[in-house]
Design brief:
27% of the residues are buried. The protein is 17% helix and 23% strand. It has five helices and nine strands, in the order H-H-E-H-H-E-E-E-E-E-E-E-E-H.
Length: 270
C-alpha cells in the first residue's frame, strides 16, 4: 500500500509539472481536412488511444494461430521449445484449460511490448523531461525519460528502463532495455530475456490515428532482430478509465470456474 501511495504521488507531481497550455489542450490542432497540424517542436500525442495492436507478434504480422516455422520468428532452440510449451489463451496453443500465463495465474505485470496487446485505452502525458504512458489495463503507467542515455547497468525490472526522443514532428521513439526476463512479449507466449532490447515507434498519422511499430532485438532468445507493424490504433471517443481493468487472482479463478470450465469437454471416466 505504501509503495502504491508513493507511485501515485510521483505521477501526480508529474501531472502538475505540465504547462497550463498543454493541460488545456484536449485535442491537437487540425487542418480543414482533419490532419494534425505540425508542431514546432514535436508530435502532440494527446487523445484516448486503443485498442490493442494484435496478440501474436510475428514478422510482417499474420494469423494469431501461426506458430513455428510458419510464423518466421527467428527462435533460438530453447525459446522455440519454451514457446511451444506455454498454454496461453490465444495463439497456436490456445486453451482455457490449465493456462501457463503468469499474468492470468499470478497477476504479474504484463510489461512491454505485451501491454500493447490488451484491449484497453491509454494516454500520453507529455512533459519536457519525460513522457508518461497511462494504461487503463491494470490501472498502471510507465515513464519514458527524454533525451538522455540509458543507465550504465540498469536494474532488471518488469517494464525495463525506457528512454525516448522525438523524431520529426510526428513520431515518438522509445528505446527500452533492462528487462527482468519474466514476461511474455505477446499474448501467444513468446519469451523475453534480460538481454531484450525493444524499440517502439509511435507515429501520429492524423487527428484520429496512431501507428505503432515494434522492433524486437533479444539475443537471449532469438537469432536476429525482427519488426512487427506498423499497426494502427484509433482515438476513441468513449472516455478514459471508465472500465476498471484490474487483475486479481480471485477474480481470475472465479472466471475460470464459472465461465471457462463449463465450456470444456468432460473428462472421460476410467
Amino acid at each position: 500500500m505504501r509503495n502504491q501511495r508513493i507511485a501515485s504521488a510521483i505521477l501526480w507531481m508529474a501531472a502538475l509539472a505540465v504547462s497550463p497550455a498543454l493541460l488545456a489542450q484536449t485535442a491537437p490542432p487540425t487542418s480543414a481536412g482533419g490532419n494534425v497540424l505540425p508542431s514546432k517542436d514535436h508530435v502532440d500525442l494527446s487523445g484516448n488511444w486503443g485498442y490493442g495492436i494484435g496478440v501474436n507478434y510475428i514478422p510482417n504480422g499474420g494469423d494469431a494461430k501461426l506458430g513455428p516455422p510458419a510464423d518466421k520468428v527467428p527462435y533460438q532452440p530453447w525459446a522455440r521449445d519454451k514457446f511451444l510449451s506455454e498454454r496461453p489463451m490465444t495463439g497456436p496453443n490456445a486453451t482455457f484449460n490449465k493456462t501457463t500465463d503468469p499474468q492470468m495465474l499470478y497477476c504479474d505485470p504484463v510489461g512491454t511490448p505485451r501491454v500493447w496487446t490488451w484491449p484497453g485505452k491509454y494516454r500520453f502525458l507529455q512533459t519536457p523531461e519525460a513522457v508518461y504512458i497511462i494504461y487503463e489495463f491494470g490501472m498502471t503507467w510507465r515513464v519514458v525519460w527524454l533525451n538522455r542515455p540509458h543507465s550504465d547497468d540498469p536494474d532488471p525490472t518488469w517494464w525495463g528502463e525506457s528512454v525516448g526522443k522525438y523524431e520529426g514532428n510526428d513520431t515518438l521513439v522509445i528505446d527500452t532495455i533492462g528487462f527482468n526476463g519474466k514476461t511474455w512479449i505477446d499474448m501467444a507466449g513468446r519469451p523475453q530475456t534480460e538481454k531484450g532490447h525493444l524499440i517502439e515507434r509511435i507515429r501520429r498519422v492524423d487527428a484520429d490515428t496512431l501507428e505503432i511499430t515494434l522492433t524486437i532485438d533479444d539475443p537471449g532468445a532469438y537469432t536476429q532482430t525482427w519488426t512487427y507493424g506498423p499497426k494502427t490504433v484509433k482515438n476513441l471517443k468513449t472516455g478514459f478509465s471508465k472500465a476498471q481493468l484490474i487483475c486479481d487472482v480471485r477474480g481470475n479463478q472465479y472466471f475460470d470456474d464459472v465461465v471457462e470450465k463449463p465450456t470444456l469437454p468432460a473428462t472421460p471416466s476410467k
